[in-house]
Amino acid sequence: MDFKNRDVISIKDFSKEEIIYVINYAKKMMPYAKGEKHIDILKGKILSTLFFEPSTRTRLSFESAMNRLGGRVIGFADPNATSQKKGESLADTIRMADSYSDVIVIRHPQEGAARLSTEFAESPVLNAGDGAGHHPTQCLLDLFTIVTEKKKIKGDKIVLLGDLKYGRTVHSLAYALSLLGAELSFVSPESLKMPKEIINECKEQGPEPSSTSNLEKAVKDADVLYVTRIQRERFPDAEEYNRVVGTYKVDINLLKYAKEDLIIMHPLPRVVEIDPEVDKTPHALYFKQAFNGVPVRMALLSLILGDRQL
Ligand code: NCD
Which of these is catalytic: 45, 108, 135, 266? Predict the structure, then answer.
């Protein structure tokens, strides 16, 4: 298994075995991610975080991961405070980050921006979300969370709910879950259905996903309910957003239909789609899921950059 200096642009670039390897390695990182034990296997290395779009968890957990491994971080969270504002091209910004650091994490509103960045960087590039495209590191932490809680993925009944058209987390996750043999069910407003190409890719990898608009029915025998935010910033038309926001809501009422051990996940930020009352129930896993970004990103950074491993 060779991860050294690899770009991480799409989860499709990984084989099933590689995904499982990263998940298992992330388990070993847990005590280090929590700060209970200490390591410095990335001492002397620098990560740059180039965030052209808002982020809380992805950026901070990458920073935490790099710091926990003994490395250092430079970067920006607001492109308006960079030379982009003066008209600099993405290519030139990437060239500079490449010369100042050993690995680049980029989030950008345009699909394909991360892949394009690899052409201007010698250092590995990690895609932290490209428009409605991919979000491979989120996908790995989502898979890690399911495996940790459910012990397996094959045969699990997993419902993906919400904005399946623009949500990049569900685009990556649907593919990976199919590859790992989960039974998928898609629930979304009619106008925000999972894109056909992704459904086709899922079918090629594993069991055929089903689609429904009936959330109660889908939740009834689900093992995992993965909820997403309606991606307001991707709507060409504000009117359309207003029409669909609030179509589905996960609340205590809905949980009456759920199995006792259903877990509810969400990449966060949540807006209105999960009632805060749900947070107190044993179903709510989203905050733990967000923490899992640290051990998973530690595992990836260490595999890509480290001269030695744990
Ligand atoms: C997601 C994203 O940016 O795609 N957030 C995240 O990385 N945890 C989901 C979202 O913004 O809705």
Answer: 135
